[in-house]
Structure formats: C-alpha cells, structure tokens
Amino acid sequence: MPIGDLKAFFAKLETDAALQDQARALQGSTDDERVAGLCALAADAGFTVTPEDLSSAAAGTAAAELDDQSLRAVVGGICESTGFFAPHLGREFLGG
Amino acid sequence: MSAAGPVSPRFAVLRPDWLLRGYSDRPGVLANWRTGEARPLAAAGAYVARACDGHTDFTSPIFLPKHQATLNLMLAEGLAEECAYGAELDPRQRFREAPNRYIQYTQWAVTGRCNLRCRHCYMDGPTGRYGELPHDVALGLVEQFVDANVQRLHLTGGEPLLRADFWELAGALTAQRIAIHQISTNGVLLDDEALQRLRDLEADPILHFSLDGVGTHDAMRGCDGAEAAAMSAIRRAVDAGFKVSVTSCLDGVTRDGMLPALDLLTDAGVRSWHVTAPQAIGCWTTASTGLSLDEQAAVCEPILRRWLALGRPMLVTLCGIYAGAPGEYVPPQEPLHRCTPDDLHCGALFDDTAYVMPNGRLIPCPRFIGTPFETALPSLLDVSLSEAWANEGLRAFLGVTKSQVLAHNEECAACDEFGECGAGCWAMAYAASGDVFGRDPVACDLWKSPHRRHLAGIAAGTA
User: Fold this and answer.
1) What is the ipTM score, two decimals?
2) Residues 38 to 77 of A: which have CB under 8 A from any B CB?
3) Residues 6+ apart with CB under 8 A from B276
4) Total domain count for chain A?
C-alpha cells in the first residue's frame, strides 16, 4: 500500500516536529540524495515510501490532494465566532 | 525527479507582523500581532508555516503539491514572502507551542479603580472594590500571557490609564508581540501624549470609549466634565488615525441624549457605535432607571432612521434589537449559525476567550463578576494561566451544552426561537433568578418581541 504509506508518512511529517527537523536537514544534498534520504527517513518511521511514490506525488496536483479539505481550510481564514445579538456581523465588530 | 531538470530553490519567511503559535488542541495559528487577526491552521498549513524560516527549500521532496499551493496562498494573502536563502525570522515570530488549549483573546481588567463614578459600573469601580495588582505581579501576568500564547488582549478596567505603570505593561506586551487589540477608556486621561505613546508602541488598538449620550453622560458617569473629556478624546483619537468605537448605555436618564450622540459621533468619524442597556450586575443591581424592551425600542427606532438618513455612517448595534454594518445596505444572509442542543452553551463566544479580573481571577466573562462563580474559579496568583485554562471548574463551566440547559428549562426547550436565541445567556439568567440554567429574560423578551423584525424591516425599506 505505498500510496497509503505516502499519505500516512506525510500526515506524520506535518505534525511531528522532530521528524520535520530531520527532513529539513536533508536539504543540503542533491535532489536524488534528498529523495533517497526522505525514503530512508520514512522507512525509519515505519512507512514504505519509494522514489517513484514521491515522483508521482510531486507530479500530482494540489486539488487532487485536497479533495477532502479545501485549501482555504488549510490556511485558515477569518475564523471569528459570531456575535450573540448579531450573527450576521463578526465578533470583531461587536467589541470582542 | 532529477530528470525534470534543475529547479531553483525557493525560500520564504513569515511577514514581520505574523507569528506562528501552537496549542494543545491546534497544530498552529498564524497571529498578526498588530491587528489581532488570527488564522487557525490545519496540520498542512502549520507544516508549511513552520518552514517559512528562510532556510527551508520549498522545492524539496518533503513538500507535496498541496504544500506548494498552501505556500502560494500564504504568499498571496500577505502572510509570508519569498526571500533569499538565510533571511532571518525575528525569534518572536518562530513557532512556539503552549501547553494549553487555544486562547485567542483575553480581556484584562488591569485595575478596578476608576476616576469616574458610573452608576452602572459592573466592576463597582466607584469603591475600587477589586483594587489592582502590584506592578511586579502584573508584569508576571504578562509572562503568563506569553507562556500561554495569548494572541491578543483587550485592556480594560476600571479605567486602565489610571494605572501608574500602564505604559510599562503595554510596552511589555508589545515587546512580546502580544497584540493590544482594544483599550477601553473613559477618555479622561487620553491626552495627546498618551496617543503618541500608543503610536510609539507600534500597536494599533481599537480605542473603545464610553459616551452615554449628549447632555446626559455626566449624570450617568457621576462626574461633571466627563462628557467634554470623552468627546475631546474621541475626536483626538480619530484625528490621530486610531480606530474608535463607542458604547452608550441607555436608561431613563440617558435616553434623550442618544439621538444627538449619533450626529456627534458621525461627525467625529467613529467607526462603530453600540447602544446597550446596562446589565443587572455590579452597581446597576440597585438602579431604578432601567428601560423596558419596548422603551428601548422606542429610542432605537428614531436612531435607526437617522442612521439610515445619514447613509449608514458607522457600524451600529442597538440594544440587541438591530445591528447594521456601515455603507450600502446588504440584505442579511441566513444566520451563519443556528443554535443546536449540542452546542456549548456559551462556547460561541467564550471557548477561546478569557477575562482576567483586576485581582487576577480568571472568569469566562465579566457578567460573572460579583457572583459566587467568581470565587470558585482559579486565580492567576495561585496557578499559571496555562494551568488555570485547564481548570476543572472552568472547563466544566465552559463545557456545558445547550442540551443541559434545555433539560432544566422546559420553556426554552419548547420555544420556536431557540435556534437564534440559543437559550440566552446564563449569567443573565443567574442575575434574574439565581439559576444559571434558568430563563434569560433579556434574551427571551428580545427574541419574542416584534422589535427585531420591525427594525430590520425599516433598514430593508419594507416597513
């Protein structure tokens, strides 16, 4: 299940600060070495990720990956609760 | 991947006003320390934001197309900017995780003392009942706000500018990049020097004044000259470029001063005006000049008509009966949210919002000042804000759902207005009956009355 592993690995990478530090440390090498290093990092974390998986993912589109969650939700947006007496106006307007 | 040819490395940094913070219940929040704006991030967004450090190459295979798209959106929205390798982030912008749940907004009553003697003060300011914390202790609270990743503060009182160390506290907050989002003041001490000091802090707070009508303010505030001082401060604050908001308390004494206040505040360039009836807490519990909802509506209708005639010059909220944005009329959309029994009872407003009393007590909102709940909740003199925010009593308080309220309150359970009213406010219910699960008479009257629909019809041109 390599695709599943790829998604699971990136899900872990997005939330694991220590793993992120290790992944960022791969940057100084060449592209091929970085890919190989990332695959090794995934393996150490218990995931099977191949260079082909990464290549395929890199060639994909953001829309394909964000089918369950809009990009807007990823980046946030105005996320104010609404005012008690004025649900059509933001809390911002109501003095907090 | 190398077969695609060499790709130029791509680096980015957060723009200087944006900070990256994390909480036990949120992977990341981008917070603008000048404006107080918050961007709660999903895990992928937080991952990208953490990499906006000037050293991480976004062409690395550790980023998928969705991460690239996320970065592009952050760039487009001014949250981050592309840079050369090695650009440095201010250390205060870097990701910092707090052990507590998200606290977006905290009101901090920095003093319980006041230089006016308002008849409706919920803090009992005329007696200075709650005093104020010593300087070192207050600075310790600032550190607590930092440790808990409080994103923005509303400084209030009492009269906050009465604190001798107010500017030092404000400076400590902005030095730590905590947004001073609002300052509530009666304006008496807000002279040009004070406005300049605010400017020097690089803060851009909303300045929130009280003006209880033209010709009636002094009677409500218990001091001659308070109205002139407030209007002078309002005008100078607007002229100095600050965002200015005004609240006016409506009762039998101030009712005749409300309509003239609209013209005066419009001329001054105020951005928002909130007419509100005093709440039955603090000094107002013994007042006898309160108005019924019908009487409030009778005052609000001519205000609304005048506001429309003036071209909707500012945002207004009128005793909960009407709320309108400035500028061209836009028909109200469907409510963003209709209450359901599964909702937190007051979570819509307070699940990420705290109120720190002048004595350091942490309560959900100022409406609980002077109630037995106040002393049952944690004090920041005893525990840190991070610990207090997880306090079992506070969580139990904030965790009550509307279904629990409905189970105790048959009238609300059977009411057609529940979807909008949400069974009202339990602090108001407590003030009325001593039962937090009881009926909130203020909300009940409001939603069952015809006034909201009538005033909405006037604004829409259909009444």
Assistant:
1) 0.75
2) 38, 51, 54-55, 57-58, 60-62, 64-66, 69, 71-77
3) B247, B248, B249, B250, B317, B319, B320
4) 1
